[in-house]
Specification:
Elements lengths: L34 H8 L19 H18 L8 H10 L11 E5 L6 E3 L4 E5 H6 L3 H16 L2 H16 L14 H13 L4 H17 L5 H15 L8 H17 L1
Helix pairs in contact: 2-6, 2-7, 5-8, 5-9, 6-7, 8-10, 9-10
The protein binds zinc ion.
Length: about 270
């Protein structure tokens, strides 16, 4: 006799916590308007401004920025609960991303943070972090991978590097890093984590978002996944915002439409 659905044992799931320390990344970057909330929690002096003017003469190479972002992620990985290899979350992400370690001329690594937050991010060094809350919201693999592809797009197109660089230069200028010759190595672990958080909080431009959205579709098609997952993911993330999970962002409906158009153009 078939066991009624209601009798099936519930999936063993770990109790999820909020992300600590607070890293507001970008779930398709529609949720980036967290800065105000985080600013209140972190204290404005700690909330680094990415839009400020860097001090003249302060420079940093792309390679240094990549290394800094890797160090920032290493610190965030220490500060947040990483899903162990045997967890359902880690197994799902591994199943979906195995073979993508050298995706599109990038060196990528993937991990799940066991946190409730509906979010994901990728950094210039190629670290991709997916939050359990996002995986719960998007049980459909195509939709989840649309978000992953979008985040990878920000790395591939150089948006993430620009954002880290600007954040470092403005922060370093404010902290007087010029005094130590703008030496990247002078940043301590806590400063690195803070830099990473600040860089992830900084908004991408609308143009960058459009580019990453399209990259996400290309990414899905390249991996023989359904490109419409990108549209559905965008709609669900928009819905999640309305229920208060993410801050309101009216652009998500327009972006879903633009994605639909882009997909139609590709399939013609
Ligand atoms: Zn984005």
């Amino acid at each position: 006799m078939k066991r009624p659905i209601a009798m099936r044992p519930a999936l063993k799931r770990p109790a999820l916590k909020q992300l600590l320390p607070l890293v507001a990344a970008c779930t398709l970057c529609v949720g980036v308007a967290h800065a105000g909330k985080l600013g209140a929690l972190l204290g404005n002096d700690k909330l680094l401004e990415a839009g400020g003017q860097a001090m003249k003469g302060l420079t940093v190479t792309n390679a240094e920025v990549v290394q800094m972002s890797a160090d920032s992620v290493a610190q965030m990985d220490k500060d947040n609960p990483i899903a162990p290899a045997g967890s359902e979350y880690a197994k799902r992400l591994a199943r979906l991303t195995t073979g993508m370690e050298h995706e599109d001329a990038l060196n990528l690594n993937f991990k799940v943070y066991l946190v409730k937050d509906v979010n994901a991010f990728a950094t210039p060094d190629g670290s991709v972090r997916v939050f359990a809350g996002l995986m719960d919201l998007l049980p459909d693999d195509d939709e989840l991978m649309a978000v992953v592809g979008h985040e990878i797009g920000h790395v591939r197109k150089g948006h993430s590097l620009e954002r880290f660089k600007t954040t470092y230069l403005t922060n370093a200028a404010r902290k007087g890093a010029v005094a130590v010759g703008g030496n990247v190595g002078a940043l301590a672990g806590s400063q690195l984590a803070q830099l990473g958080e600040a860089a992830l909080q900084a908004k991408f431009s609308r143009g960058n978002e459009t580019e990453a959205d399209k990259y996400g579709v290309d990414f899905l098609m390249r991996h023989k996944l359904d490109p419409n997952g990108a549209v559905e993911a965008m709609k669900k993330l928009g819905g999640a915002q309305r229920t208060g999970l993410l801050d309101s962002h009216p652009a998500s409906a327009q972006r879903a439409q633009a994605l639909q158009k882009y997909i139609a153009g590709k399939q013609r």
